[in-house]
Amino acid sequence: xxxxxxxxxxxxxxxFASLSVSADPNQWSRYRGPNGTAVSSATNIPTQWSAExxxxxxxxxxxxxxxxxxVWKNHVYVTCFTGFDWPKEHNQKKLVGTFKRHLLxxxxxxxxxxxQKSDTAEHYDxxxxxxxxxxxxxxxxxxxxxxxxxxxxxxxxFGPDGLFAYTxxxxxxxxxxxxxxxxxxxxxxSPILVGDKLIMNAANEGSRFYGINTSDGQIAWQIxxxxxxxxxxxxxxxxxxxxxxxSSHGGALKELNPADGKTxxxxxxxxxxxxxxxxxxxxxxxxxxSQAHFTAMxxxxxxxxxxxxxxxxxTPVYHEGRLYYAGGGVFSCLDVDTGNPLYRERIHSKGYFxxxxxxxxxxxxxxxxxxxxxxxxxxATYKLLAQxxxxxxxxxxxxxxxxxxxGLILRSDKYLYRIKETD
Length: 423
Prior knowledge:
The protein is mainly beta and about 425 residues long. The chain is about 5% helix and about 40% strand. A hairpin with a 2-residue loop joins strand 19 (about 280) and strand 20 (about 285-290).
């Protein structure tokens, strides 16, 4: 362990505070909710919906995207892109007009678009993204980073085109570049807010990890040689929030002070590259690499158990001692104390689950790309409650749903939906 000797006494006394506690039911301010747990205390969430049932409104989007919607009070934010035809068959390539990325603000109650900011992608290499070796960028899209929001406004990241901060009324506050590099799969890590810092993983754009002042967009600190591609995670110890990430390509897990970016401790073991965020599960930290291997650690980073069979995409959700996740046509539940599966059930889903599962009202919601949203009981025994498809929307559903009040905000490549009881 690097730096562990000087920190072992403090690390052993870590107190994991409310990161396993449900999020505020009235806002969903970042990827996987305001505290990053993907668990909400909201109730009366619909179990079933369709094109004719429990859809309060549907708003057409200007283009597709893999980003997830976020909510601040009556403002719903989502990103998408236009100017690039995105066929399901990777060998079809077509540019349409000017390539642009869009940030939309939508009224939570009515579904009407309050304002829309559309910017030409200045730092976008069309030839590279059209090359045969870069089909994954076409498949993942160019609006995959979920915005974050607070009382001052919304923060949207568009990869090599940078960070954009707007007020809730749509006025531009500042912009900041985090590098202009490109990767084979495109950029997807999302910004998170910790105090007065916006924490940004820009491994894809510049192999760097940033702490950015929310007030003016200035870079407060940065870490070089950062090769982790997932959205960072926060946890609370002794009343202070810290940041968990993985360092370098396939590197070790480490904990950072968000105020100055200094490493508090770091594991020596290389856990492997990952597409999913680190999970805080009670008094444990759980990492999942791109080979679908789980590693559970205690508060000091010491390994407790390992297990196979995790998802490739979609960060599992922790609740009451269990991890829930979907992938490969299987829905699974894992005991976090032992790493043993409680069940793995075939659900005959077509395609991947890019969206992360979320929990509310005693139910696990798993959005698949092409087979609808599966709803399971959040229990130690398997129970499928519903499979919901919207018949008149044949596009892909890739965003993690936002949970607010008594419903869900769900996005597809064509529409944004508010799902709630309408009868």
